[in-house]
Amino acid sequence: MNLICPICNISMTHIVDDVFFCKKDCLYLCHDHQPADYNADYLLHYKLYGRTQFGKQLNQKRWSFTLDNGLFGPLLDFGCGSDSFADAKPKDVAVFSYDPYYKKDFSFLNVELDTTTFWDSFEHLTRLEIVPLLNSRQIILSIPILRKDVDIFCWKHFRPGEHIWYFSEDALINLFKKWGYILKCCDTFETVMGRDDIKSYCFILSEVSI
Questions:
Q1: How far apart are CA 154 and CA 157, in angstroms?
Q2: Left, alpha or beta for 173 (phi > 0: left; psi -120 to 50: alpha)?
Q3: Which of 121, 151, 152, 188 is deepest in the core (most CB within 10 A)?
Q4: pLDDT in tens, 49-80
């Protein structure tokens, strides 16, 4: 199987089973042929998780991060799952939600998006090329970041069938640079809250004034 790195467009090296690696960009791909079953139990778990005190605090922090980076128009929450982020929104914010497994609402295509968020969903994307086509002014996401001293096969975020992409920080920044986005800011508030190796980023289109 010849899988191409989405950053450098060079063939990725087959490591073992369904795991591939691009040494140039320090990017892993787990091309599992038996993807996770995102069924009703999976959705219920995250709906209940969103109702916990921790879940509520997490969404408050995520909204603070989003608003602090400027929000001037409609927001798309991509991979929304349980909709807990949208449910916690300020009243005057226009939020659209899309999840490829649970909610196929394409109404966001009729608006000019200001911001798209990927909370714990970017690493699940089967088609990364969707992201630049959204043409959002800025992209905000939280994602597990693979540190250089970590063995991916022993990493808590290594979840074959569920997580497809495993990014180093440089790989993530270079991918968005390829799409015409620059890094505006990065925050570790989720790590501080106890979510190991989860970092949050805001990328903005390079032609947009910061």
A1: 9
A2: alpha
A3: 121
A4: 667 899 899 999 999 999 999 999 999 999 86
